[in-house]
Amino acid sequence: MNKSVKLIIYTVLVFFTISSIYPLFHVFITSFKQLNEYINNGFLPSTHWVWDNYRVAIDQGNLLYYFRNNLILIPTALLFYLFVCITAGFAFGRLRFPFRLSLFLLVLFLMIFPQMLLSMQLFQLCSKLHLTNSYLGLILVWTAYFAPFGTYIMATFFSSLPYEIIESARIDGAGTWKILTRIALPIAYPMLGIIIIIAFQSMWNELPFSLLLLQKMEMRTVTLGIAMIQGQYGIPATVQSAVIMIASIIPMMVFVFFQKYIATGSFAGAIKG
């Protein structure tokens, strides 16, 4: 490969890198600007950084309530989600039972439905079960909607485990539950990291189900709260940027913490196939 081709490739890569990073950088610098400075200088960093936008975002935006709700909802929903994904994934990937393939294809079929298509049906179902304005209702809906993808990931991984390991454990007297918890699950830690971060990001950013099921202000999630803030108060772009930066802190921290598991799981998936 000659130098001119390398230069073109690097130029294109740098361009796409800047295009990907700049929106976040723009929101970051905007959150430290006064409104009049943002109007006159919308693209460059501020000459005088201020913290007032963050104070207004927290005081008027009720972000502490929304963060509290997320800290209640998401960890609980992740427990339900992981239990379903791990047990169903192991059943589809390693056990043999009637209609296994048909049921697995049904799980995959559930992945193609967009949220907006299911929203009204789920809302009517939750209304009949008295699960609207209820944390439990949203947790069950999140689990039902996001679990098929995690089940598919875990089933694919468990199906690649050497069958000799499972047979050896059975010969030693281990039951199905013990094989799952003592043998299969420790090997699957990298894949768990992947489905955890995917589910966390999906639940954190989810809007349609939260909008329908959580109608009380004090029960809103962060994403729903931000959407309602923009619609209710018409807050300026500087405060909106501060709200977005505050709401992005925890997802960024989760991504950084689980990044090594994502890399390990990606290599494991590539090797196992």
Structural features:
sugar transport; MetI-like fold; mainly alpha; disordered C terminus; globular; 0% strand; single chain; MetI-like
Could you provide a short overview of the structure?
This protein has 273 residues and is mostly helical. It is built from 13 helices and no strands. The chain has a domain of 173 residues: MetI-like (MetI-like fold, Orthogonal Bundle).
Write the layout of secondary structure elements.
Layout: H1 3-30, H2 35-40, H3 52-61, H4 63-94, H5 100-110, H6 115-128, H7 135-159, H8 163-171, H9 176-187, H10 189-205, H11 208-213, H12 222-233, H13 237-272
Family: Belongs to the binding-protein-dependent transport system permease family.
Main location: membrane
Organism: Hydrogenispora ethanolica
Task: Describe this entry's structure for a reader.
The chain is an all-alpha fold and 273 residues long. It has a domain of 173 residues: Orthogonal Bundle (MetI-like fold), CATH 1.10.3720. 80% of the residues lie in helices and 0% in strands. It contains 13 helices and no strands. Helix 3 packs across helix 13 and helix 5 packs across helix 7. The two termini are 31 Å apart. The C terminus is likely disordered.
